[in-house]
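Cast an eye over this sequence plus tokens and explain the fold to me:
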Amino acid sequence: MSPKRVVFKKTSRDKSVAIYMSNRDFVDHCDHVDPVDGVIVIDPSQLRGKQVYVMLSCTFRYGRQDMDVMGVAFRRDLFVVTRQVYPELQDRDKLTHTKVQEKLLRKLGDNAFPFFLEFPDNLPNSVSLQPAPTDVGKKCSVEFEVKAFCAEKRDEKIDKQSSVRLTIRKIQYSPRDNRVAPVAETTFDFLMSEKPLQVKLSLPKETFYHGEPVHANVEIANASNRNVKDISLSVDQVTNVILYSNDKYVKSVAREETSDCVASGSSLEKKYTLYPLLEHNKERRGIALDGRLKHEDTNLASSSIVKQEVLKELQGMLVSYKMVLKMMASGPLGSSEVCVELPFRLMHPKPEEGKSPLITMTTADITHKQQSDYLLLLLCQHNTI
């Protein structure tokens, strides 16, 4: 049976322009980013002499789209590039097309025109903060969008009736992880105790994948006169909003409470397993997610990897993760909290060559999710379309 591929289509309200794209997830490989390509189909009778453009934009939003405080809109365009699609500026036969573009051009006829857009290497990845169920229309996010529109001039105000937009995502795969497994080792001294409490927290690797359990190894050597109890571990997600507000959100996305205790003069060595998953945090406000697409679920936001030469202020939001070990050390003079933190990465695994794990829909999924303004087609590689 021929392999199938999903193609996304959306049409403007006045039917003057439609956009076709075979992908909505684009990967940042650190040294380059997958280009954005697709096909625009026009209706010459609806254009009335206007030109057709396609735009790629990256926008940071902090609040509702229409929110304005003292003349300052909480919205910033981090990147915008616009290309003219029709009338063509180059002979299409001289352009390099992808295989999907070639099939679409053959199927859609003379009113179909290809487009090709590139990301610069300093843009952030798609990320959004999960709103509360009562937050209607509010969002804090870094969003990417492809827009096709008709206009007499490139910079004139865009008519919503003659434009169509499709949200896309820029994601990042885990780099080759050759680093030493992370370890945090700390010694705690207490008043009126001759000997210390030694705590070691370690992980088997630095990078974990979405959906993968995180194993943490805890070693406690308690030579002090305190008794250690209420041992707990958590995976904390740290989100820094570095535009406008410089806010910092720390949310526990997985937690393990234990009844383990370590009496004075004894020791403990134990492995704990935590599951940082979105399905356990869907009702919690402020959790950072990978950018959402219409009709599709997502996952917890991936760790941000920023190149040294890129300004962090242009990233909008930065996400990181850490394993946090906490316990109470109680003695004759009261109790004190002991805490050890260990950072790690949570990311998408790099797929095998020639495979894309991001397209996972079946024909049943497509039938269920189909909407009047949003159509999914299937391309067979060994067919005309």
Observations:
- The helical segments are 44-47, 99-108, 363-369.
